[in-house]
Amino acid sequence: QVRVVESGGGLVQAGGSLRLSCAASGRNFEAYAMAWFRQAPGKERDFVAAINWSGSNTYYADSVKGRFTISRDNAKNTVYLQMNNLKPEDTAVYYCAPKVHSGTYYTTSMYDNWGQGTQVTVSS
């Protein structure tokens, strides 16, 4: 199993940037696609971005395209989410998880072993 720990969240002004990290432990990290989701208070956990096992394919929610970039370093067992031009509506707890089921990248049911999340707050 792959276990993950997210870090890098914080408080930033609108227009600013943050880079989130997702450090993984366990076997065969490089075999898993990975994704970032986010959850704002009182809302469902929504897809943000995903990356396949090699990093050759990436997927983004429309709301973050052109602003966020997902990447991975399999040698370091880490996935990153570079977030630029942040907006107040990006405020949420951000979670990463390995994709453990085949199928769409976009739904939480394809993922398991979620981390504890990291809070991102964007002030206007």
In short:
By secondary structure, this protein is mostly beta strands. The chain contains no helices and ten strands.
Indicate the topology:
Blueprint lengths: L1 E6 L2 E4 L4 E9 L7 E6 L5 E7 L6 E3 L7 E6 L4 E6 L8 E7 L19 E6 L1
Parallel strand pairs: 2-10
Antiparallel strand pairs: 1-3, 3-8, 4-5, 4-9, 5-6, 7-8, 9-10
Describe the protein in words:
This protein has 124 residues and is an all-beta fold. Helices cover 0% and strands 48% of the residues. It contains no helices and 10 strands. A hairpin with a 6-residue loop joins strand 5 and strand 6. It is globular. The termini are far apart. The model has no long low-confidence stretch (mean pLDDT 97).
Termini separation comes to: 40 Å
Order of helix and strand elements from N to C terminus: EEEEEEEEEE
Shape summary: globular
Look at the helices and sheets and give the structural class: mainly beta
Name the strands of the widest sheet in spatial order. Answer: 2-10-9-4-5-6
- The value of Rg in angstroms is 13 Å
Number of strands: 10
β-sheet strand percentage? over 45%
Specify the helix fraction band.
Answer: under 10%
Low-confidence stretches: none
Work out the helix count. 0
Mean pLDDT: 97
What is the subunit organization of this protein? single chain
Largest sheet geometry: 6 strands, mixed
